[in-house]
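Pasting two entries for a bug report.
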Amino acid sequence: MDERPLVELFTDGACSGNPGPGGWAYVLRFEGQEREGSGGERTTTNNRMELLGAIEGLRQLKRPCRVRLVSDSQYLVKGLSEWIDGWKKRGWRRKEGPVMNVELWQELDRLRLLHHIKPEWVRGHVGHPENERCDRLAVAVIDQYR
């Protein structure tokens, strides 16, 4: 049995235009305590923001954990659960060419060696409380760039 503590990480990314100003956010929950964070980039893509929300949340963990990672990004969830091992085996390439955002995927790969990450997809903008909260935090960052 895995003795590592179980944490929940809710993440989201947003972009106004693609590329355009973008924001990422996370809500991290452990034993009833929550921490949130957000940030962004002046010119970026939605996919980069989705990945950075997860990365920045995972970077907050001080020791190896089991992580329930909840996101509305199929790019992030499928990337972690289906694609990343194949990309890595092929030298970070897809059949169509190089993996986009490779440096972020490599960082996620490094982090998943530390933590047991179980990604879960949720439909966005349908009232999932933590997803909506992350979306508001990410959009607030975009508003700062306007």
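Entry 2 (this is the one that rendered wrong in the viewer):
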Amino acid sequence: MNPILIFRHIECEGPGYLADFLHARGIRFRLVCLDRGESVPVSLAGIGGLVFMGGPMSVHDPLPWINAELELIRHAHQKDIPVLGHCLGGQLISKALGGRITANPVREIGWFPVTGHSAAAAVRWLDGLPAEFCAFHMHGERFTLPKGTVPLLTSRFCSLQAFVKGNTLAIQCHMEVTAAMIEEWLQVYHKELGQPSESVQTMAEIRHDLDRRVADLHQIAEKIYARWIDNR
């Protein structure tokens, strides 16, 4: 398989556990560090897949790389090249495929359960996964469902947490996080936690039983990443 390109938008939001998954499978990948001024490639020649990570920016921001990423996503989707997005990355996929990105009714930050969608296609895609599991969330915007895609996951505070079409998968929550990443985010994004609420946990709540929660999430991520990459 040709190497996968992983697009990083801010240094603290790298591939995390996804890198471990790819290493374990012997799948080559290259990090494209947009935060360090690297450019979005125009051609997909020699590329086996695209992954778009998160970040505090919005798809609506006037950043020079956003339109380039949207075009690359559309091109890859048309050519059946695997595409995966986490949080901001999922929102980029939604917008590229005709969805809309709007403010979520509330900020969703912390450990909250997500459940599988009841649609028959979603049930088939999620086969072998728990009906509900706890994921890590950190977002204030959300995506809508592009035409022809299948809704996969939902949560109490965000009605659409993931969708898929072929080998293009968009995820709103963070399945890639490691304990070290979360600790770093608590420092980098500490102002986001200034007003805890039903949908925004305190630092203490986020850190509670952190290693176990992350380990449990990695078991879920392993199955979801495998379903995505094996669907190429």
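Dev reply: Rendering is fixed now. As a check, the viewer should reflect this: The first strand starts at residue 4 and ends at 8.
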